[in-house]
Write a structure and sequence with these properties.
Length: 297
């Protein structure tokens, strides 16, 4: 019975992470429509995280009262580091890197983070790096290489460093977040991550004179959709981490760019080469191996 419960917990956690990957893979597609309204990256993230944090804080307050949001000064500082610094650096680094290097190259650099998370978790959480986990990382990353297609790589150290910064900060975000949700409910963690990210992007936007809000009602509706998609993506991811492990969650999250590519194909009528189809298959195989590893824990 214990083994059955463990298998069910692993599959359930993996399902939440894959749901998170789908939701986060949807955001770049929605963002393309928002950008047509001349909304800047800073503005997108500021509005996105503001709406998400207000909505979740309101729900927590209605369900559990003021006490649900009282975490203490020490935990508040931890949550600021998690959302206001680590996740903000991730979003800023990744979305800024594509200005200097091709998006596919930026994605390849950024999605090195599952390997970094696995290595970091093996030291911090004493999480054993099994052969299936290592194999799933290698297969999934090779899949991303094929999925990116033929790209003329622009040698820009600034773009490479920004994408690398995003990978390192997201690695820290996952590992530190796993530590925090042991003491703070994951819903509360997500609420403060969104809140502090919104504050950071507000400061960055004002400081760089790059905070422009849309005037069209349709753009505001899309921003609201992106905010709630982000919110459920965060909740699903942290719940998945709780039920599996940081390594497994990071590997399964490599399905995110696959989701973006497939949606681009369906919505924008783009076409995939044979190599890209093969890459997508490898990502799915890598995710399946990670899923099996999760269930066997």
């Amino acid at each position: 019975m214990k083994d059955v419960a463990g298998h069910y917990k692993g599959y359930k956690g993996a399902a939440f992470v894959l749901l998170s990957a789908f939701l986060f893979g949807l955001i770049p597609i929605l963002a393309l429509f928002v950008y047509k309204s001349r909304v800047s990256v800073m503005s997108l993230h500021f509005v996105r995280f503001t709406i998400a944090s207000v909505a979740l804080c309101f729900l927590l307050y209605m369900q559990r009262g003021k006490a649900a949001l009282q975490v203490g000064k020490r935990n508040l500082l931890k949550l600021f580091v998690l959302g206001g610094i680590m996740f903000t650096l991730t979003s800023f680094g990744y979305f800024s890197s594509i200005k200097y290097i091709p998006a596919s190259v930026a994605a390849l650099i950024f999605y090195s983070y599952p390997a970094l998370v696995s290595v970091g978790s093996s030291f911090i959480n004493k999480e054993r790096l099994s052969r299936p986990i290592i194999l799933s990382i290698i297969i999934s990353f090779l899949g991303l290489v094929f999925l990116s297609g033929k790209t003329a790589i622009s040698v820009s150290m600034k773009g490479v460093l920004l994408a690398g910064l995003a990978a390192l900060s997201y690695t820290s975000y996952i590992l530190y977040g796993n530590f925090i949700i042991r003491d703070i409910p994951y819903q509360v963690t997500v609420a403060y991550v969104c809140l502090f990210s919104a504050v950071s992007f507000l400061i960055l936007g004002i400081g760089t004179h790059n905070l422009t809000l849309p005037g069209a009602c349709s753009a505001w509706m899309l921003l609201c959709v992106i905010a709630f998609v982000s919110l459920f993506g965060f909740l699903s991811f942290f719940l998945g981490v709780m039920l599996t492990s940081p390594s497994i969650a990071a590997i399964l999250s490599m399905a995110e760019p696959l989701v973006t590519v497939i949606l681009s194909l369906l919505i924008f009528k783009e076409s995939l080469s044979v190599a890209q189809c093969f890459g997508g298959l490898l990502v799915l195989i890598g995710s399946f191996l990670a899923l099996k590893a999760s269930a066997s824990r």
